[in-house]
Amino acid sequence: MLRRRSDLPLDRDPSGRYLPWLVAVMVFLAALALVCAMAMNKVVQRWDQGLSGSITIQIPPPAETSTAAANEMAIDRIIDILLDTDGIIIAEVLEPDEIAELLKPWLGTEAISQDLPLPMLIAVVLDPRTSPDLGRLARQLDEAVPGTLLDDHQSWLGELLSLARSIELLAALVLALVGSCAIAMVIFATRMGLAIHGQIIELLHLIGAQDSYVAAEFQSHALKLALRGGVLGLLLALITLVAVARLMSRVESALFPEFSLQPLEWSLLALLPLAIALVAMLTARWTVLRTLGRMP
Fold first, then answer.
1. Pick from 248, 219, 202, 252: which is nearest to 102 by CA?
2. So what's the pLDDT on residue 279?
3. In which band, very low, low, confident or very high, does the pLDDT at 103 lie, cut at 50, 70 and 90?
4. What is the CA radius of gyration of the chain?
5. What is the pTM for the complete model shown?
6. Which has the closest alpha carbon to 145: 227, 219, 79?
């Protein structure tokens, strides 16, 4: 009679020494790539939601010889043009304190002083039902007050979106590479185990063991090793992410997103070790059945 789960001493295979560590590295890289893609997607969504349906009018800083009345007249001309344009709901002049607060994440508190010439900004809210002719509006504003700029945020938002898509594509390539490497490692380890225990497998066949029984032994072993390495890799990735999050929290910059994951995103990370373990188990079973099926 066959003994349950003890006919093949797979725990003493050399593959058991390196396979968990290799899987840990693979899961570590996959987790970092996945979190980078999630973080970049959050940045795009945050900026897109914050700037969607709005434009910014930038009036150059007043000359030293300009009077306060002349500056007020220039702003009034810009406001009149904006409010007379179809598709514009609100046009609000930002105070110097508000402009300094917007520049604070980029320049820092110390770089902003009273002597720094700041442009005047007007925040404009667009009507979602009507789209104004921004090109014609930009020409009108420049004619009214030379040097006035209209920023619809689309240029750099498009670049940010392209960057986000590139990072997401890179993350997908990393995940595909991790899966391919895991399959290759399991195939190599399984074939090594078949070669080492070839005589025991032949003996098992002589006493009535089927190929499916041998495959079950190997797939159980691969599942255990891959799951052990996957959990280790995920723990290392979480430690790294926590350390990076603490460093980012000390830097006041709009370039860095706030590190926070939703429950669904945490679930995706937690499923990485299980996914790698299932891939290893199925690969080991396929390798055993294919190899034994070719044997005479």
1. 252
2. 92
3. low
4. 31
5. 0.70
6. 79
